[in-house]
Amino acid sequence: MLREMREAKRLTLAAVAKATGCSVTKIQRMETGERGMDPSDVSALLNLYKAPAELRDNLVDLLSTPADRDWWYGIGTWLPLTWRREIPLEDEATVLRAYTLGSIPLLLQTAAYSQAFLSCLYPHLSYRDVRRLVGILAARQLILDRDPMPRLHFLIDEAALRRPIGGPGVHAQQLQAVAAAAARPNLTVQVVPLSAGAHPGVAGSMTLLEFAELPAMAATAESAGFEGSKPFVEDNFDLWDAIEKQASSEEATTQMLRSRAGLLLNARTPTRAGNRTVAEEIAFPSQTRRSDASPGKPCEVTISLREPLGAQGEPVLAHPEGEQD
């Protein structure tokens, strides 16, 4: 994550080292997880990268937490119930499998995408609280680099690739980020194409967890959180296998992600294709701010991009009218 934020600001390792007084080697090892991270060093980097205050505070608090205390200690009381149930189990899992139907998996979401997604998922939360959730999600995503590394396998329905949450620019950057994440040695990403037709995943998302010393657990869209009963878990592993058989290969998935991202980026500069623009061809909904959303209207959050998107560029979030940090 630190590397992605640095590259989004178009800073070299040498420039960051000079600005923070650290060596290039130290910065590089912090980015790759080869060395522990001091809270003051991380705070300096996040300040340099102009990271959102909530993200900076949550990560610094995480690194400052005593080793014998779980990182989510003290923040769980206001989190959504599903998060309170997921985080402790997620943190202990050695293998995590997740199938998502309507959105990119939380553990792979960029800050801008999750800002737009969580704003619609939890419309009762204030802008500030949604930003706090985005920061906590960034802390959850640290399990991708945990030692020992867990094994993660994500199946994503193609519908999630076609729903441009946050607008086409933000969604393109999100798809690029998923493609980049798929190159991790401990992570597998596959898309379940719409051409697969009916399959067990049409009923909703699911998550399967395996642990070193505990029985496996499963959660579905219809269950009340994670359950560990053997028949329930075995049934859902069978469903997972059935969905996976319909999924595209890892190579085809990466190609699909990059192709879709390119189409969305082209849509930011509409060009005529017959009587329709490229933007019209992919049919993303008109963007409205949350304050304009009402029942029956698409929930969309406007995200502004102050700089052109790079391969791993990080868009800057726009403040809803009338709200400040």
Automatic annotation (TrEMBL):
All residue ranges annotated as the HTH cro/C1-type domain in the record: 2-55
Region (Disordered): 306-325
GO MF assignments: DNA binding
Protein name, as recorded: Transcriptional regulator with XRE-family HTH domain
Organism: Crossiella cryophila
Family annotation (Gene3D superfamilies): lambda repressor-like DNA-binding domains (1.10.260.40)
Domain of life: Bacteria
InterPro entries per the UniProt record, alphabetical: Cro/C1-type_HTH (IPR001387), DUF5753 (IPR043917), Lambda_DNA-bd_dom_sf (IPR010982)
